[in-house]
Write a structure and sequence with these properties.
Blueprint: H1 19-22, E1 30-32, E2 39-41, H2 57-65, H3 68-89
Antiparallel strand pairs: 1-2
Length: 90
């Protein structure tokens, strides 16, 4: 924890920010907002520029995956039904 320095008192080296904290070129933790394309921090939940919610792609795919197996089963059942009907006609 740093202490507040008095205006007349010089700062100790331990009170100064680290050099890596002052660099602005550290783009490793920055990503582009999918809505406004501006740089935001990777952990951001809501873009400070466009105020849109940032939804994790994996989390949004979970909602779609619940429909995968029912659709596959329905297509499989339809194929079996078509095969049985085609055999009975011939």
């Amino acid at each position: 924890m740093t202490r507040d320095a008095e205006p007349s008192e010089p700062l100790d080296e331990k009170d100064l920010p680290l050099e890596q904290d002052l660099r602005d070129d550290d783009q490793a933790e920055m990503v582009r907002c999918p809505h406004c394309d501006k740089f935001i921090y990777e952990e951001t939940l809501k873009c400070p520029h466009c105020e849109e919610w940032i939804i994790d792609r994996a989390a949004s795919e979970v909602g779609r995956s619940k429909w995968f197996w029912p659709i596959v089963i329905a297509i499989g059942a339809a194929m079996i039904l078509v095969t049985l009907i085609a055999k009975s006609i011939l």
